[in-house]
Write a structure and sequence with these properties.
168 residues; alpha+beta; Aminopeptidase; 8 strands
């Protein structure tokens, strides 16, 4: 996959991205909202990248794609993750140094029309903690419709969440 928007490139992971992935994962927002995606070492990031590269071939997911600025600076990712109930969930994270610039919304909007047909589905879920106002805004600005707000499982814990759905 290689998508280009006005400001971004969405492509496939390469082993040489490990250091940038490691450094980007250490920010406060990653630790707070997606703690399982913190890579304390470059080696941990490299192992994860190797795993994710293998998922591209199988198509089984998670299908995680790096988001780069036009100068090829790694700033985060966008992903489609299979859920146990047969649905898929979109995910995204932009490093704290690059937030509040609309990059997540731009990446999600470009990603959805490409990934849904690739997955053979017409809709995808977006689930976030209710306290994560930035993610709520990204989902709403990307055309998702809220289906549920209340207590639910997120990162293996019961907590207040919002669940959205996007349909082609």
């Amino acid at each position: 996959m290689k998508l280009e928007t006005q400001r971004l490139i969405i492509t496939e992971f390469q082993p040489e991205m490990a250091e940038a992935v490691h450094l980007n994962s250490l920010d406060e927002d990653t630790r707070r909202f997606v703690p399982d995606e913190v890579f304390e070492t470059v080696e941990e990031a490299a192992e994860t990248i190797e795993f994710l590269m293998g998922c591209y071939a199988s198509g089984e997911g998670p299908l995680v794609y790096p988001v780069l600025l036009k100068d090829e600076t790694y700033i985060g990712y966008v992903q489609a993750v299979p859920l146990e109930d047969g649905n898929w969930e979109v995910g995204y994270h932009i490093g704290m140094n690059y937030t509040k610039k609309g990059y997540a919304t731009e990446a999600v909007r470009a990603f959805l029309p490409v990934i849904l047909p690739k997955l053979g589905v017409r809709d995808i879920l977006g689930i976030c903690r209710s306290a994560n106002g930035a993610s709520v805004k990204v989902l709403e600005r990307s055309g998702f419709v809220k289906e549920f707000e209340g207590m639910g499982s997120y990162q293996g814990e019961e907590q207040p969440i919002c669940r959205y759905r996007y349909s082609l």
